[in-house]
Write a structure and sequence with these properties.
This protein is an alpha+beta fold. Helix content is 32%, strand content 29%. The structure holds flavin-adenine dinucleotide. The site of flavin-adenine dinucleotide has 30 residues, from strand 2, helix 2, helix 6, helix 7 and strand 10.
Length: 276
């Protein structure tokens, strides 16, 4: 394996243009190093971006947060801006791995890995984040909801770098949450996770968007129009949410059975929504 340490964004895009499908971007390395160790990655040309300071920031614009891909989970968890304008992302970042993983792992790497269990992804989905991609031939924007095509698969091309994530700020009347069920409190990849963004007017849902992790080959996003326009007592909310079990297609693995994951999908959404 050949590792090249890029010092600027232009060096990264030039590198990707030269090596295309043979190349790989390295950010914090928490996923990449494990995959190389387990023989799951063979790409020979690696571009280490970790030292590029210009890719690590959280900035406020008029109606959004702009986040650099090298922003770590720790940065997100500590950011007042993220807590204020994108609270589910802060909650998701806090729940990632251990302090060591949160200090090293990045939001760009979480998106790039495209795991159905990636914790920032349900949060980014309900918030409607845009992913800005850069190559030596130009720039394009993909909404996160259109980004994932399968486990570990995205629409990001081999010569493209995630260079910014743009998150519309929550506005007045909107509430949101991220919640995760893991086997242990630390270092736990999620058994199931859920995020939601709702708009409430005098206690009535006027818009309900939800996202679920570890419940299908990709993180799922759905608008629940059947919950909109009514004030639902808890018993009715629980009853209505049962349909989620038919919308998901989880696997059974060492962490949980598919049936348990389906039940947890309902339970996580119910617990989050009933308290809003
Ligand atoms: C012990 C342990 C516990 C963990 N716990 C959790 C957890 O609880 N929740 C969770 O979500 N994850 C967890 N992870 C996974 C991992 O830490 C996260 O996915 C992390 O966000 C990856 O970021 P990274 O910077 O280390 O990515 P890297 O490993 O450097 O890269 C990951 C992928 O993203 C691509 N990539 C990185 N940056 C870019 C970019 N700018 N443009 C395009 N592609 C890019 C890389 O090419 C690679 O394919 C855990 C990992 C370990 C080892």
């Amino acid at each position: 394996m050949n590792i090249y340490s890029a010092k600027s964004i232009a060096e990264v895009t030039n590198f990707l243009q030269s090596y295309g499908g043979e190349s790989l971007i390295l950010a914090g390395g928490t996923d990449v190093v494990m995959k190389y160790k387990n023989g799951l990655l063979k790409k020979r040309e690696v571009c280490n971006t970790y030292g590029i300071r210009d890719l690590r920031y959280i900035k406020e614009t008029a109606d959004s947060l702009a986040i650099g891909p090298l922003t770590t989970h720790h940065d997100l968890a500590e950011s007042k801006l993220v807590h204020k304008y994108a609270p589910p992302l802060a909650q998701a970042a806090v729940s990632v791995g251990s302090p060591q993983i949160r200090n090293r792992g990045t939001i760009g790497g979480n998106i790039g890995t495209a795991s159905p269990a990636g914790d920032t992804l349900p949060a980014l989905m309900v918030l409607g984040a845009d992913i800005k991609l850069l190559s030596s031939t130009g720039e394009r924007t993909v909404n996160i909801r259109d980004c994932f095509t399968g486990p570990g698969k995205t629409v990001i091309k081999p010569d493209e770098l995630i260079f910014e994530i743009n998150i519309p700020k929550l506005v007045e009347g909107e509430q949101s949450f991220f919640t995760k069920l893991g086997a242990r409190s630390a270092l736990a990849i999620s058994i199931a996770s859920a995020a939601a963004k709702v708009r409430l007017e005098r206690g009535v849902f006027t818009s309900v968007e939800v996202s679920l992790g570890s419940l299908a080959p990709t993180v799922l996003y759905q608008r629940l129009t059947m919950l909109e326009g009514e004030r639902l007592p808890n018993k009715e909310l629980w009853h209505r949410l049962q349909f989620i079990k038919d919308q998901v297609s989880p696997i059974s693995d060492v962490r949980a059975s598919a049936e348990y994951r389906k039940q947890m999908a309902v339970a996580l959404l119910f617990e989050g929504l009933k308290d809003l």
